[in-house]
UniProtKB/TrEMBL annotation, chain A:
GO molecular function: GTP binding; GTPase activity
UniProt GO BP: regulation of vacuole fusion, non-autophagic
GO cellular component terms given for this protein: fungal-type vacuole membrane; late endosome
Protein name: Ras-related protein
A Pfam match: Ras
From TrEMBL, chain B:
FUZ/MON1/HPS1 second Longin domain span: 307-405
Domain of life: Eukaryota
Record's protein name: Vacuolar fusion protein MON1
GO cellular component: fungal-type vacuole membrane; Mon1-Ccz1 complex; multivesicular body membrane
Disordered: annotated span: 1-33
Species assigned in the record: Wickerhamomyces ciferrii (strain ATCC 14091 / BCRC 22168 / CBS 111 / JCM 3599 / NBRC 0793 / NRRL Y-1031 F-60-10)
Length: 205, 545
């Protein structure tokens, strides 16, 4: 009975400013990278057609403003997301610590009904930099992801296209699973009780 | 079309002695035959007369009870403003507020043209270039329905794949625009770009958007969106929709919409775009039928009604009402019926006449929380619809329908109905000369009639303009609009008159004569004719039990 329309998967990307949210998205959708930094104002989205296990879907990736002063559109577009991607910069301790804040912020603003089941994916970006610049090592990150509820973790480089497709494959699968998970109980009484005047007056004679 | 509306202050009074410059009276009145020839060869340059007439007169505080005098009052007032007599004092006791004014300089010419009044309106149809009109409508409108989270539900042309991708992108933008207004504590209803109006209906968790380039107003588009929303409710009911989104805002409502629902939405948007006047004026079209036949069908429906029949309707193709059966205490809303008829005749395309249909349908204006059940049986393309609140009474209603149809046949009612449908309604039936087309709505019956032989799609923009030029706050409002150089012949004009009173609304369009007095007279004739024959034209009583 359902239509053959493509499923739309809505994915929100969150994280501190400058961690590479826009770059990750551009690399995944367009295969491009720019060294220039431009702050995202408000929000932006890109869409990409994907096939997951023979099912074709449209992934709509929402790139958000990391800088508070550019969050002009508020958080309304968090609503109805099928997956949330939390991004930190492996060279930036603060951005890593803020991951759990971004997660909480999302759960509150997106009004998620079952927070423990909602799919998050964590991405540590900029792994292409020199080892001595990295302040968050794999082990520390993995432990952190486990503590947040065994969240999938990927170490990526948007610049050199490392692990991008792998990360977004998991994002898409988790989003699809979330999208298809409809706890819908259709058993309710839809009858309307209609009182006709005539019925009340039956004994009036 | 140029916007020929001239705004003036409501207390504007022309200076004494002021008269607009009048064109010189033609030295010699051309004979009828000369006029006919010159018209086609077009040396009669109407355009050079630079007439810019738009008349709108609103009257407030006119007597509560409408009587025959009203037509004369309006007639006088209209003429008063229309011809710009310099006496601004003889407004008698009626307080008039001209919302629009008129500078008509073609009175003399119109006088001359008035002499060819015997020309039948059917000769005028060449003034309307149908193909050109159709072409203009292409891509001029679009509808989107999406969830508050930006998940697509419906877009008008969503059967083409490439549009589907666009739709996904539009969704993101629409959702962002709507929600950013909500965040700031306001709600966005409508905005206009140079040529396009965007109107939003936020029925959280559903957002509907209409985009129109054909000059419809916010309230007209809002009505259309309400119709589409009501259709969604009719298929799913409000609790079903609310619960769908309750646990997951990102729910894809398309999962609960079947193929019939999507084709129903397609049909409804097509009806809107092709211009269904009933949707504009909020009324059902009725068919002209002899009173005795209408009465007989009424008594049959009443007599054969079984216990669980809540409503019954006899409806001709196109949703034209023939008769209604209803309980004294309940009526059905026009929108609910428009949707029901649309669904029924959409279903009819896929079913043969001997099949019986059983459709659960939520009448959202009646009660958005649950379903009623419609039994449908077709007889000679006419639908007999019986509605029950009990989902288990299909066989009872089937039995009832057989008895009703048997009696209909016995009394030759179907035959009479088919004859009436075949004849339709023509402007020739009405003593209103030179009227190309009209719409008459009886407010009391919430039904309208119009000539059936004309493709009304091509008249959409004229009717839209007439409709929106009416002052809805006034008790009585009249509007006269002339479109210069609009006909196929570059020298011809199209004119229209809209007239709304407490009891009726009439809109009429003419393709040649554009003199107000003539149009007002014709409007009066139409009103008088429709009042006189109202028992033939409308379902007046219905079968009430």
């Amino acid at each position: 009975m359902s239509s053959k329309k493509k499923t739309l998967l809505k994915v929100i990307i969150l994280g501190d400013s400058g961690v590479g949210k826009t770059s990750l998205m551009q690399q995944f959708v367009n295969g491009k990278f720019s060294n220039q930094y431009k702050a995202t104002i408000g929000a932006d989205f890109l869409t990409k057609e994907l096939t997951i296990d023979d099912k074709s879907v449209t992934m709509q990736l929402w790139d958000t403003a990391g800088q508070e002063r550019f969050q002009s559109l508020g958080v309304a577009f968090y609503r109805g997301a099928d997956c949330c991607v939390l991004v930190y910069d492996v060279t930036n301790q603060k951005s890593f610590e803020n991951i759990s804040l971004w997660k909480d912020e999302f759960l509150i603003q997106a009004n998620v009904k079952n927070p423990e089941n909602f799919p998050f994916v964590i991405i540590g970006n900029k792994v292409d930099v020199d080892e001595n610049k990295k302040v968050i090592n794999n082990k520390k990150a993995q432990q952190f992801a486990n503590n947040l509820g065994n969240l999938p973790l990927f170490q990526t480089s948007a610049k050199e296209a490392v692990n991008i497709d792998q990360a977004f494959d998991v994002i898409a699968r988790n989003a699809l699973q979330q999208e298809e998970n409809d706890e819908f109980n259709d058993e309710f009484n839809d009858a309307i009780n209609i009182q006709l005047d005539g019925e009340n007056n039956n004994c009036a004679c | 079309m140029e916007d020929d509306r001239i705004s003036i202050d409501s207390d504007y009074i022309p200076e004494p002695g002021y008269r607009p410059q009048m064109p010189k009276r033609p030295q010699k009145k051309p004979s009828l035959s000369q006029l006919m020839v010159t018209r086609s060869k077009s040396p009669l340059k109407l355009a050079e007369l630079q007439a810019q007439p738009t008349t709108g007169v609103s009257m407030e505080n006119v007597g509560q009870e409408e009587n025959e005098l009203d037509t004369d009052r309006i007639y006088n007032t209209l003429n008063h403003y229309g011809s710009y007599h310099d006496s601004s004092n003889d407004q008698s006791t009626i307080r008039t507020t001209p919302t629009l004014t008129v500078y008509s300089e073609d009175d003399d010419l119109a006088n001359t043209l008035g002499e060819i009044i015997s020309q039948r309106s059917t000769d005028l149809k060449d003034n309307f270039d149908h193909e050109e009109q159709q072409e203009k409508l292409k891509g001029a409108k679009q509808f989107f329905i999406l969830s508050a989270a930006g998940k697509p539900i419906y877009s008008m042309s969503s059967d083409a794949d490439h549009n589907d991708d666009d739709f996904v992108n539009y969704n993101g933008i629409i959702q962002t625009i709507v929600s950013s207004f909500l965040v700031s504590g306001s709600s966005l209803k409508s905005f206009v770009t140079e040529s396009t109006r965007f109107t939003f209906l936020n029925q959280s968790p559903i957002i509907l958007l209409a985009i129109s380039k054909i000059g419809e107003s916010e309230s007209e588009l809002m009505n259309q969106l309400d119709l589409l929303y009501s259709f969604l409710l009719s298929a799913l009911s409000k609790p079903h929709i609310m619960r769908s989104f309750e646990n997951k805002e990102g729910f894809d409502l398309r999962k609960h919409l079947g193929r019939a629902d999507l084709s129903g939405l397609n049909l409804l948007t097509k009806e809107i775009i092709d211009f269904n006047p009933g949707l504009l004026v909020g009324a059902l079209q009725s068919i002209k039928l002899k009173k005795s036949i209408r009465d007989k069908s009424r008594s049959i429906m009443l007599n054969k009604r079984s216990k669980n029949v809540l409503y019954g309707m006899l409806v001709a193709p196109g949703g034209k009402l023939i008769n209604v059966l209803r309980p004294k205490s309940h009526t059905l809303h026009t929108t609910d019926l428009q949707i029901l008829f649309s669904i029924v005749f959409n279903q009819a395309k896929n079913h043969s006449e001997d099949e019986e249909l059983w459709l659960p349908i939520c009448f959202s204006k009646f009660n958005p929380n649950g379903f009623l059940y419609a039994f449908v049986k077709f007889v000679d393309q006419v639908a007999l619809i019986l509605i029950s609140a009990d989902r288990n009474c299909f066989f009872e209603l089937s039995e009832t329908s057989k008895k009703i149809i048997e009696d209909f046949k016995k009394h030759q009612i179907m035959k009479q109905i088919n004859e009436s449908l075949h004849h339709g309604l023509s402007t020739i039936d009405i003593p209103a000369p030179l009227i190309y087309h009209f719409i008459y709505k009886s407010k009391k019956h919430l039904q309208y009639v119009m000539p059936t032989s004309t493709n009304v799609t091509t008249l959409q923009r004229y009717y839209l303009r007439l409709y929106s030029s009416i002052d809805r706050d006034a008790k009585i409002s009249v509007s006269f609009i002339k479109w210069d150089n609009e006909g196929k012949d570059s020298n011809s004009s199209i004119a229209g008159l809209g007239w709304v009173s407490p009891n009726y609304e009439v809109y009429l369009i003419t393709g040649s004569i554009t003199k107000r007095e003539v149009l007002v007279n014709s409007a009066k004739s139409i009103v008088n004719w429709c009042k006189r024959y109202q028992e033939r034209l409308f379902v007046c009583e219905g079968a009430v039990f």
